[in-house]
Amino acid sequence: MGKIFSTKDRPVHLGSFPLEKLRRVDQAPGLDDLKPAAPITFSRPENPHSIVNAMAEYMGMLDTVRVGNMNPQLAKCPDDPAERSRHLKAFAYFTNASMAGTCSLDADDALSEPYRNPEINHLAHRLRTEQTKTLAAGMDVIMADLKASMDLEVTGVDEHSHALVIAFAHPRDPRPDEPGSEWIRDAQAQRSALRANECASVLTNYLRLLGHKARSHSVTSSEVCLNRLAVKAGIAIASDGEAHSPLCPQGMGLAVVTTDFALEPDRPLDPAQSFPVQAPGFEDRNFVDSEHPFETLRRVDEPTTFIDEPRVARVPKRADMFARAQFGDLGPNIQKAATNGKFVRQAPTSWAQRRVMSALALIQNGDPASEQQAGYDDPERNAALVKAAAYWLGADAVGISRCPEWSYYSHDARGEEIVPYHDQAISVVVDQGFDTMEGASGDDWISCAQSMRAYLRYALIGGVLAG
Fold this sequence. Notes:
The chain is of the alpha+beta class. 32% of the residues lie in helices and 11% in strands. The protein starts with 51 loop residues before the first helix and ends with a helix.
């Protein structure tokens, strides 16, 4: 989505909305009249073509990992609540949140009737009983932690004192005659809720790694009122019993992290002021075309890099560099850094992302539906559907190509032979971001977190597309 102004020289914890310039009040008008938002459903049995159906399992897995084991050792971090708030907001904006705000957590913020995602039970069973087929470093440690956390009891949040509220703004609504828009119609609420829950799940795990209690809350699983906390945190205003974002009139999706990690609360917005409105993005372009002018690039029939296809060797998964590092092919020092995913685990930011990504990896493979849906005989229309959905979900570049046999590994992580099974490929690119790369040295924490952020985003987008 477009920005009101450039963030090149703007502190990362402020984000792209000018929230710091808005007038605040001590008590939010209409707060006590707010109605709790009803949980959102991710099921459209009457419309099997809707992408909402494919989102359901991924939203469910994010809700499944909302609880977890806490690091028994408390990490060193600033005692200043203001600095803590800035840090968490910066992390939220790093994961592409539109807005982030903090507030205190009071007894009135709890729901009288908490709601729970119906997908959790069967996904928790899968986490307990299934094993991923991968050589990814540290996966065994993460899966053991995920399995153990499935037996934790989900209680109230009485011991939590503060909340971080995360908002993802809706893109514009697809136009009725827009190419490739059939899958993504009437799905704005689910799309933004999914993206917000991804961010909240990572930040929740991050706080637990620091040794603090934390839990994420979404539009499908929550013990607190998201609308009420959004108003208290200065992200929304209360009007006629509903929470509205004056900065995003097209709507937004919410998620919340509650924690015992003390934060500096933001003050509520004064509704009696004018608000700058941010363009939702894609206002002058179709979703299928992306926000980048790829159509202006020169195209050729064959890659300009020569590929000697008959002689390209298929190698086993064991031959990739991450696997070779773990097996000691690159020497003992590299092997030590790869053991249990140390190169990821040494920074809580990247390890927090990796845990969520590993949970999603369990549901990335699946069997096709027993009955093939009609209406997909036109390759050009099919390509438009895929591209529009990917860009709408947040991809930065999407391309479709053939998938020749030589592009497959010869054997998987278990040593079993891979027989090429698809002849076409959808390639999705997630930009690692200008903002953090400017300050990275290549061997600091942000470099690994940049990669994990992009991997996690693709796991979500690619998984939903495959579903």
